[in-house]
Design a protein that fits this description.
11% helix; single chain
């Protein structure tokens, strides 16, 4: 894992040194049983991310809760080509061309104030639906990017990272006084249609790459939280990484779930 990713992780892995002196083969009856074979991503999951979640917006209010002014790209490392695109933003043109969903693509959707519905499609595909923009993301465990038709959500390859062997020697992290399984979800997305990092036309190109880290934890009062750290790289419009962190709180059910179409303004 790179030093950048280590800094992005909200809670570092809890390292537990273990030293065992062995003078000879251990008796068979003293050896721990071998771990049960894991054949699918759902069985390997260290966290249950399924259910309904709602965005909790505590920062970047003017960029997330309303449409920023034209030309406002503060905080985004745009190059000259990217700034030129910002200056030409025209929501009416996006509407006329049927591209109202430009700000709901994979590089930006987790920043949109929305509710999420996360389910398993099958043992190796995790589905994430948003009520804002009626978007659907599929996370393919063990998948490989394809060269097929580009879409707003692109193609996402997922993997569980930071896993520790369960049972003897297993490691957990303690957050707010409650033990949590160690491990988090990494998602790499490519093959996206060009879109906007913000609703006011701040662009990313078809060459952009999105790297995301999904981490969850529980508070002592029982609240469950999901933190999604997103790193967007784009050789066409960005001179550096665009990094954001978005928070979601788990809901008890679908109350408030209100799918609605994309809006360009």
């Amino acid at each position: 894992m790179s030093s950048l990713v280590r800094r992005l992780r909200r809670w570092p892995a809890l390292l537990v040194p273990l030293s065992i002196a062995v003078s000879g083969p251990a008796p068979a009856q003293l050896r721990p049983p071998p771990p049960a074979p894991v054949t699918n991503a759902r069985a390997m999951a260290p966290q249950d991310l399924t259910g309904y979640w709602v965005s909790i917006v505590t920062e970047d209010w003017r960029y997330r809760m309303m449409t920023p002014d034209k030309g406002d790209f503060a905080g985004v490392p745009l190059n000259a080509a990217g700034r030129a695109v910002v200056d030409k933003w025209d929501p009416a043109q996006d509407e006329a061309s049927g591209e109202q969903c430009r700000s709901y693509g994979a590089a930006a959707i987790m920043r949109v104030p929305t509710r999420l519905h996360i389910t398993w499609d099958n043992d190796n595909e995790l589905r994430v639906e948003t009520d804002a923009g009626k978007q659907t993301r599929l996370f393919h465990f063990g998948g490989h990017p394809t060269g097929g038709e580009q879409g707003w959500q692109g193609y996402s390859v997922a993997s569980w990272e930071g896993l520790r062997q369960r049972g003897i020697g297993g490691v957990t992290a303690t957050l707010g006084g409650k033990a949590e399984p160690e491990g988090y979800l990494t998602v790499i997305t490519t093959n996206m249609k060009p879109g906007y990092l913000r609703k006011n036309g701040v662009p990313y190109s078809a060459r952009a790459r999105v790297e995301e880290y999904f981490d969850s934890f529980s508070e002592p009062n029982g609240d469950k939280w999901l933190v999604v750290t997103t790193v967007v790289t784009d050789p066409e419009y960005l001179v550096g990484n665009f990094i954001t962190s978005s928070q979601f709180r788990r809901l008890p059910g679908p109350t408030g779930w209100d799918p609605r179409p994309c809006e360009a303004r």
